[in-house]
Amino acid sequence: MTIESGAQAPDFSLPSTSGAPSSLAQHRGQRNVLIAFFPLAFTGTCTAELCAFTEDYAEFESRDVAVIPISVDSVPTLREFKAKHAMAVEMASDFRRDVSRAYGVLNEEKFSSNRAYFLVDKLGIIRWVHVESVNGQRRENAEILAAIAALPA
């Protein structure tokens, strides 16, 4: 079952493309966080989504939001994906699928995450959730930025 808006976001620490662990706790009290689960690197919709995060990277930064894309791909795969498309955002690897399970977005049949977005405020509370009904669809950054604008100050 997917975690709902208003719930405390489960913390995590995952290996990332930066070489340092990516965790929710490192942002607590300092920044809002957009956790963006995506099914697999190098697929059409995922590539478009991650490239869009790069295009609007400065906009997310200016709104004090850390973007953490998470997939079940390995770190070497994510590094190659990032390099091939010159992506600005660092990605986290949920290779063991623990975080996808904790957030209720693991597709057990395909053994990858469903495309899902969790906007977490500075206190660690989930303020906005969207899980795509079809993984070939994604939210546009304008919709995500509107949800960010609605966060309490």
What can be said about this structure in brief?
The protein is built from five helices and nine strands; from the N terminus they run βββααβαβαββββα.
CATH structural class: Alpha Beta
How many helices in DSSP terms?
A: 5
Count of strand segments: 9
Enumerate the strands of the largest sheet in spatial order, edge to edge or round the barrel: 5-4-3-8-9
Largest beta-sheet details: 5 strands, mixed
Could you explain the architecture of this structure?
By secondary structure, this protein is α/β, with parallel strands linked by helices. The chain has a single domain, classed as Glutaredoxin. Helices cover 27% and strands 22% of the residues. The strands form 3 sheets. It has a 5-stranded mixed sheet. Strands 1-2 form a two-stranded antiparallel sheet. The chain has a two-stranded antiparallel ribbon with strand order 6-7. The model has no long low-confidence stretch (mean pLDDT 93).
Task: Give the SSE map.
Layout: E1 13-14, E2 22-23, E3 32-37, H1 44-55, H2 57-62, E4 65-71, H3 75-84, E5 92-93, H4 98-102, E6 106-107, E7 112-113, E8 116-120, E9 126-131, H5 141-149
Parallel strand pairs: 3-4, 4-5
Antiparallel strand pairs: 1-2, 3-8, 6-7, 8-9
Features:
single chain, 153 residues, alpha/beta, Glutaredoxin, 5-stranded mixed beta sheet
